[in-house]
């Protein structure tokens, strides 16, 4: 028997937690699962189904640094698996979400789309187009 691994939660340093929360909750249909007890939340966890993202504001001296801003060849900060990216893309279109890259198949044999948050973090929502052995 091998050990099991559950969902993974990326940790994004953001400039403004309430602004980031609004994006994930209002635009992408995530729920707020936790906020720190401070009056101006500096930490929150948002989630939808098994996916979660942790959001934290540190100080003005520690700004967000998404992967695409550091390395052109690293376009995403999170891969969020969805078995039906076509249906999710339609839902997001109905919510008037702006896509960084529209629904399609990638060179890496993935089907999905990209959404960028207010701090520049890029989430790819998709799945492999084929299964590997």
Structure description:
It is a single chain. With 133 residues, the protein is an alpha/beta fold. The chain has one domain (11-128): 2,3-Dihydroxybiphenyl 1,2-Dioxygenase, domain 1 (Roll), CATH 3.10.180. 19% of the residues lie in helices and 32% in strands. The protein is built from three helices and eight strands, in the order E-H-E-E-E-H-E-H-E-E-E. It has helices at residues 17-27, 67-70, 85-94; strands at 11-13, 31-35, 43-48, 51-56, 78-81, 101-105, 110-116, 122-128. A four-stranded mixed β-sheet has the order 1-4-3-2, covered by helices on one side. It has a four-stranded mixed β-sheet with strand order 5-8-7-6, covered by helices on one side. A hairpin with a 5-residue loop joins strand 7 (110-116) and strand 8. The longest helix has 11 residues, at 17-27. The two termini are 19 Å apart. The mean pLDDT is 92.
Characteristics:
133 residues; alpha/beta; 2,3-Dihydroxybiphenyl 1,2-Dioxygenase, domain 1; four-stranded mixed β-sheet; 8 strands
CATH topology: the name is 2,3-Dihydroxybiphenyl 1,2-Dioxygenase, domain 1
CATH architecture: Roll
Query: Could you give a short account of the major beta sheet?
Result: 4 strands, mixed
Any idea what the radius of gyration is? Answer: 15 Å
Number of strands: 8
The amount of helix comes to 10-25%
How many domains would you count in the coordinates? 1
Tell me the CATH superfamily.
2,3-Dihydroxybiphenyl 1,2-Dioxygenase, domain 1
What is the level 1 CATH name?
Answer: Alpha Beta
Order of strands in the sheet with the most strands? 1-4-3-2
Helical/strand content category: alpha/beta
Average pLDDT works out at 92
